[in-house]
Amino acid sequence: MGKDGESIPDDEWERFLRDAEAGTKDAPEEPSARARMVARRLREESGRPEPWRSHQPARRQGGKGWYVVGLLFAGALLVVALDPGRVAGWFGGGDGESAPLAVESKRPDQPPPTELAAHRPTVRQPFRGSPAAQWADGTAGIGLPEARATGWMSKGQVTQALEKSRDFLAASSLDPGVLRGKRPSKAIALINPHQQDVQDYLATALRAPSREDDPLLLFSRFKEAKVRLVGDVVKTRGRITYREGKRGAVEVTTDVTYVYPSVRAAAGSDEVARTIVRREVVMSWDDPAKIVIESGTFSLVSYKVDTTNGGCDTFDGYLTPEFIAERDASRPGDGPEVDPYDRSTSMDTRMREAGDAECGAATRS
């Protein structure tokens, strides 16, 4: 192809082959013309040909078909090095949403990479520019350990306890009705009704939420009058572990990060804001011979939450994401900077670092 996309004349092509074979100094640079052809096509597909322009293709050393394939392959390697997310998009991954990562089986030793952070989310690609683009959907992103007989439970009973623990996470943080602000009845039904202090907290938090009685410690809820979730996918990453607890109970710890994309409720709104919630909930599946408890329920041991863009100093019982026009640059957070996607730090450490601060600054969303 020539500079304007026209075919190279046969006489010029023959002269190129003849001069190249003879090693003539001024042989025409046909390889660069081929590079322009590939760059033009990639510009139409991806909007960013710069990595290709920085690549100097090797000289043609065989048949024309081999050369074109070789150029595409070499160029792809270069672009992977410069912008791996864009290459994933060429092959069906959109914004880096290629195959999901393997389920988390242990605490990672570092935060996820930040290469794609500059890409803004859209209604069609709400997880664009986020590590969550490669996380699994819903409960598929919550890893379950292998069951073994523990405490008062057999292996089969532990399996059921782990599955019901995950059911609680689904009912409290993934259920579409609960996300729209409805009462989390299925989740509450899994909590020991004889644990009076917890039942009092639940009743007060859902009736008259406050700083002291905040339902968001356990549940994810958005006010439909203000925002609506984008699509029906919540990205998750986390795991469930267990050990023998007090009085032979099976103590289950869940540590999961949820990513919720939303837009304003007003018709036609298309600015996507992400709310990121990391919760650690510890449940005790108690021996009914030792603890007053209903079959199929657990006792709450502890619960912690760390929220990004869910509302700072807001305690109305709903997650309240802010959009660009609503952000107040004059109101800096009083806590440390936090990467909400970093799961290499335990929740205990995260809480200690935050101290008494109510609001911090997230390094990305």
Can you describe this structure?
The protein contains 10 helices and 9 strands. The chain is α+β, with helices and mostly antiparallel strands. The chain folds into 2 domains: 10-82, no CATH class; 131-362, no CATH class. Strands 1, 2, 3, 4, 5, 6 and 7 form a 7-stranded mixed β-sheet that branches. Helix 4 crosses helix 5 (84-93). The protein starts with 9 loop residues before the first helix and ends with a strand.
Termini distance? 44 Å
How many β-strand runs?
Answer: 9
What's the main sheet like?
Answer: 7 strands, mixed
Unreliable residue runs: 1-7, 24-97
Mean pLDDT: 78
What structural class do helix, strand and pairing data support?
alpha+beta
Oligomeric assembly: single chain
SSE pattern: HHHHHEEHHHHEEEEEEHE
Radius of gyration: 28 Å
Shape: globular
The percent range for helix content is: 25-40%
Number of helices: 10
Binned strand content: 15-25%
What is the number of domains?
Answer: 2
Write the layout of secondary structure elements.
Elements: H1 10-22, H2 30-46, H3 50-53, H4 64-82, H5 84-93, E1 136-137, E2 142-143, H6 155-173, H7 176-179, H8 185-188, H9 196-207, E3 227-229, E4 235-244, E5 250-264, E6 273-285, E7 299-308, E8 337-338, H10 347-354, E9 361-362
In short:
Helices cover 30% and strands 16% of the residues. The chain is built from ten helices and nine strands.
